[in-house]
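SEQUENCE-TO-STRUCTURE ENTRY
===========================

Backbone structure tokens: a row of integers, each naming the local backbone shape at its residue.

Task: work out the structure tokens from the sequence, keeping to the layout shown below.
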Amino acid sequence: MSEPSPDFDKLLDPSLMADAPKEASAQERIAKASRIAQGNERLKRQGEISDGVGKPKFGRTRKNAPWIAIGIVTGITIVLLALVAR
């Protein structure tokens, strides 16, 4: 039978477990969830959240609107240049 790995003793070292990150307590998780809910309510009042689950209502449209306008103007310019060149 094979010998146990020398690293096995390191796994049993109590200081390893003491230095491990601790899981948040139930009270800390509840407090964090409450802060997130308050933030979502604020965004919902401002019209940034449409359904209360974090989906932006107008954010994507506002970011893409200038690019859509630039694309439309560019397309019209190309069509006009093609018609003039004929």
Observations:
- DSSP finds four helices and no strands in the chain.
- The mean pLDDT is 77.
- The two ends are 88 Å apart (CA to CA).
